[in-house]
Design goal:
The chain is α+β, with helices and mostly antiparallel strands. The protein is built from 12 helices and 9 strands.
């Protein structure tokens, strides 16, 4: 097996790394304070072609593969896990459903501007009473002539404050749970649609998390994405790649935490020598390096399978589960190695520690991943 990236992928990795260090790193304090992503960054990423990696040239893409997609997400997450999350949403969560299920007209209206970074997207699935049980949503879409009327609310909508397009799941056939849910695209400014408060959270600062309210919100039937009542299952077809993207985020963040801990262990002196000379610290770093290597291998195995057109539901869930728990362990140990300084806000490890906690919760909790894996192995 060849574990090397191609020359083009290595060049791309260096380019993304340079962009993240030059454009994102100087914004970290602002992102932490304001908890909102500057739209200009999304525009720049669109201009550089980041959002078009997985799509054909006719839509503004570059016909790249999932491995290249993971390289992008990992390098962005090394600097900011929050921005990497929005990159994953824009590139995969938003563009992918339009590309797979949308009409040519919808691709012109929504896909091409999304790839260019001209229109920012957000996912509106979670509700106050529907998280892991995504099929139990209550937001409704009732047909009225050539329109649909939307009523209900969504919560935890990442980047809702900056988004132009909202990809909404709504019930079109009550009583059928997952078999009665459709997917719609709603544009900001549509009457009856309100983006409410930015919900304060522990980590992932830099990307606001919003509540959405729909009160007799009328949208044209042309904004139905895919077949009516097939929205839930269509979205489920994209979750494998979403999990792979989240795995890449976890690997990037874990690598940043590990590098900070290793650097600190070489510089910090106690008892007359660098703390990295002590076996207790060496063992911590050795375990961290081992887990990071394993997660990285799992990530790119799943990415390779996806690139080859192979089903990888089990591998994607295994990678997401292991990497999400791995990044929490590495962030914890990185903070521990820093001692008291790690608890201070001026050191980045406290941000890694806070950001890491989200990985076991979003895009399928650790418990949900274990259920998926159990089913995949025949239980």
């Amino acid at each position: 097996m060849d574990f090397k990236f191609s020359e083009e992928q290595e060049i791309f990795r260096r380019m993304v790394s340079q962009f993240a260090k030059n454009e994102l790193a100087p914004l970290i304090d602002e992102l932490e304070e304001k908890d909102e992503l500057p739209v200009e960054i999304m525009r720049k990423m669109g201009e550089l072609g980041f959002f078009g990696i997985l799509y054909p040239e006719k839509y503004g893409g570059s016909n790249g593969d999932v491995i290249t997609f993971c390289i992008l997400i990992e390098e962005i997450s090394y600097i900011s896990a929050a921005v990497a999350g929005i990159t994953n949403i824009q590139l995969n969560g938003v563009a992918s459903p339009v590309f797979i299920f949308g009409t040519e007209e919808q691709k012109k209206r929504f896909l091409i501007p999304s790839i260019k970074g001209e229109k920012i997207g957000a996912i509106a699935m979670t509700e106050p009473n529907a998280g892991s049980d995504a099929a139990s949503i209550r937001t409704s879409a009732k047909k009225d002539g050539n329109d649909y009327i939307i009523n209900g609310s969504k919560i935890f909508c990442s980047n809702g404050g900056a988004a132009d397009l909202f990809f909404l799941t709504a019930v079109t056939d009550p009583g059928k749970r997952g078999k009665g849910i459709s997917l719609f695209i709603i544009e900001r400014g549509t009457p009856g649609f309100t983006v409410s408060k930015n919900i304060k959270k522990l980590g992932a600062h830099g990307v606001g998390t919003y509540e959405l309210i729909f009160e007799d919100c009328r949208i044209p039937s042309d904004n139905l994405l895919g077949e009516e009542n097939k929205g839930f299952y269509n979205l489920m077809k994209t979750v494998e790649r979403n999990r792979i993207g989240v795995t890449a985020m976890a690997v990037g963040l874990a690598r940043a935490a590990f590098d900070e801990a290793l650097k600190y262990a070489k510089e910090r002196e106690q008892f007359g020598q660098p703390i990295g000379n002590f076996q207790g610290i060496q063992f911590k770093l050795a375990d961290m390096a081992m887990e990071l290597e394993l997660a990285t291998t799992m990530l790119y195995k799943a990415a390779w399978m996806d690139s080859e057109g192979m089903r990888c539901n089990k591998e994607a869930s295994i990678a997401k589960l292991f990497a999400s728990e791995m990044v929490n362990r590495i962030a914890y140990q990185a903070l521990q190695i820093h001692g008291g300084y790690g608890y201070m806000l001026e050191y980045p490890v406290q941000r890694y520690f806070r950001d890491a906690r989200l990985f076991e919760i979003f895009e399928g909790t650790s418990e949900i991943q274990r259920i998926i894996i159990s089913r995949e192995i025949g239980l």
